[in-house]
Amino acid sequence: MLGALGAGLCICASMPPWGWWPLAPVGIALWLHLLGGRRMRSRFAVSWLVGIAWYGPSTLWMWQLTPPGYVVGVLLAWGPMVGVVGIICPPDRRRLVVLPAMIVVFEWFHLHAPFGGVPLSILAYTQTRAPLLPVARLGGALLLGGVVAALGSALYLLAIRRWQPALAVIAVIAVLAVGGSLWPVGDPVTTVRVAAVQGGGPQGTRYSAAEAPLVYQRHLAATRTITGPVDLVVWPENAINISGHFADHPYRGELAREAARIGAPILVGVVEDVGDDQFANYVVVVNPDGSLTGRYDKNRRVPFGEYVPLRFLLQPLVGSTLPPRDQVPGTGTAMVPTSAGPMAVAISWEIFFGRRVREGVRAGGEVVLNPTNGSSYWLTQVQTQQVAASQLRAVESGRWLVQAAPTGFSAFVDPSGDVHQRTSVSERAVIERDIPRLDATTPAQALGDLPALVLALGALAIMAVDHRRRVIRRRAGAEVGAGAPVTPPTGA
Fold this sequence. Notes:
CATH architecture of the largest domain: 4-Layer Sandwich
Strand content: 5-15%
Distance between the termini: 57 Å
Number of strands: 14
Shape: globular
C-alpha cells in the first residue's frame, strides 16, 4: 500500500503551494499500475489511500478551523470518493481510458456537490505554471484535469513499452496545448488603470469586533498613498465589517472623499448585519460624488464558513463550534458596471467556480475582479490555490483578472495565466497596472464544462460497449465449444 500513498503524494506535491507539476501525471501512472489485475475491493482500498495522500496534506489548512472536520473530510469524504473512482476502473487495459474519464466526472461532481461544490485540490491547479495550461482556454479546468490524467496514461504506456499508443496520446495533448495558446483573446476595447489595495496585518486571525475597525483603517491608509491617475480602485472582500447599513455609515463619506481626491470610483467589500442571525456579504461601488452603484451580493457561500448546512442536525451536536450566523446568498448577476467599464465579479470562494465567472463575462464583464479574504486561514495553501484558480479563470475567460486580499495574496493575472505584481503575505501594498478590457469569447467561456464532460462520458460509453461485445463473443464461443460433438478415441 506504500505505492498507493506514493501515487497520492505525487499528485499532492504537484499542487500549490509546492507546485511540482510534472509529478501529477507520474502519480496517475503509478495509480494505473496499482489498479491492474486487482479485484474490486482491492481497487477501492488502493484508490482510497491515493485519495488520502492526495487530499490529506493539500487540505491541512482545515485543521486550524475544525480538526474533527478535517479528519472526517479526508478519511470519510475525499478518500472514499477517490475509492469509488477506483472501483469503476476495470483491472484490465480499459482502465487507461476509464481512469482519466472518471477523474473528469469525479471533479465535475466535486465542483457541484456536496453543498454546492467544494472544488479544492483539483488536478487543473497543478498545471498553472506548466505548458498544458492553455488547454483550459479550450475546455476549462475539467478538460485540463482530464489531459493531465491522460498524460499519466501515456507515461504508463511508455513504461510498458507501448510506444505507438503512448505517442498518439502525447500528440493529441500537444495539439490541444498549442491550439489553446494560439486561440485569440481579441483586441482591447480600451485600457484602464486599476489599483488593488491590500491593507496588510496579521495572517491566520479570526474575525473580532475590535479588529474590524483596524482592518478598515489599514485599507484607508493604504488608499491614501494613491497619487497617480487611476480609473478604478479595488478593495478586498469584507474590508468593511459593520453593524447597520453601509449606506448610512460614516465610512461611506470617508470613502467618497477618497474617491473624489483620486478621481476614480472605489469598489469595496462590505459585510453588514441582516437581523440577529444573518449577514450580507457584497461589493458596492462608491463614486466620487458619494453615490453607491453596482452592488453585487456573494452568491456561492463557503459551507461551514459562511453558512452551516443542516444546522438543525449539527447544532445540538457541536453547538458553539459552528459559525453563529449564516450569510444571505445573493441573487444578482455577477457583473458590476463602473465608470471604468463593466466588471465581472467573483467574491472570494466564487473564483473556484468557473461558472460564476462565465456568468459575469456573459453579462458583459471585460475585466474579472476577485475581491477576497484569506486572512483567517492557517498556512498559505488556500491562498496559493486561489491564485491558481484565478489563473484558470483568466485563461478560460480570456480576460485580465484583478485579485485583492486584505493580507495577501493580491495580484494581476493576464489572459495567458501569468501572474504579475503578486504581493507578500501581511504586507501593506497598493499595486497598480494598466490592463486592457477585452470582449472576445473563448471556447471555455462559451461552452464551459461541456467539452470535457462529452469526451469523458463518450469514452466511458465506448469502453462499456467494447466490454459488452467482448462478453458476448466469449459466451458465444463457450456455447459453440459446449455443443460440439465429442469424437471417440480410435479403437474404442
